[in-house]
User: Fold this.
Amino acid sequence: MKKPESRPNRRRRWRASSSPGSGGEGVERGDQGGAGKLDRLVAPTKTETALLPPFEGLSLDQIYVPWTEAECRDAADEIFAAGLGGFDTEAKPTFRAGQDSGGPHVVQFALTDKAFIFQLHRKECENTAADLIASREVLKVGFGLKNDHGQIRSRLDISLNHVLDLDQVFRKQGYRGQIGVRGAVGVQLKQSFKKSKATTTSNWAARELRPGQLLYAANDAYAALKIMEALQADGLIEQ
Assistant:
């Protein structure tokens, strides 16, 4: 299996409004006259999370990129044995309305001490990733997974099964909209999770991914897993 070379509590309620009598830090009140509306929590801003200690993610030597059928099978065996993993996908960006990226091009699974990056231009990896995605034996934990369903069905002709979308978990806690991995790391782990826009919009269909892409993909999935573990420790989701 090819490995890239290394290169040099409690939930804080973030203030959504400074108006007097807001009813507690981080609680946003409904509009005036909206009696009966639930209070909503708001995730920390990018500026606020930048002040927190950095999230300690996986390093390059913990990231595996299967190439051969045997390597893909070994990776799948580890993921099936774990029974769950942080999950995400990446696709080549589009820059015109209605343009189809043809993605996903990358599927990533993170375990407690490593991540596997499946590049779908390799048929062996595509078949393995499809088995894992469709499996009801492996819980896929991530953010905004509703957005992945369409691309997965379009490219692989399968359904994304057995998922835990953490955006929905935070919404049930009172956070509005999609909190996303950056906001959730700030809220739940009290850490800063940095995402490079240049890497986000890089070519995920490349034949070989750059180290920065591997770190980005792996730690998006890994952060989701760590947040799930923290939510379980706080009794906010069942173990």
About this structure: Residues 5-37 have pLDDT under 50 and may be disordered. The chain is about 35% helix and 15% strand. The longest strand covers residues 84-90. The chain has one domain: 43-162+178-233.
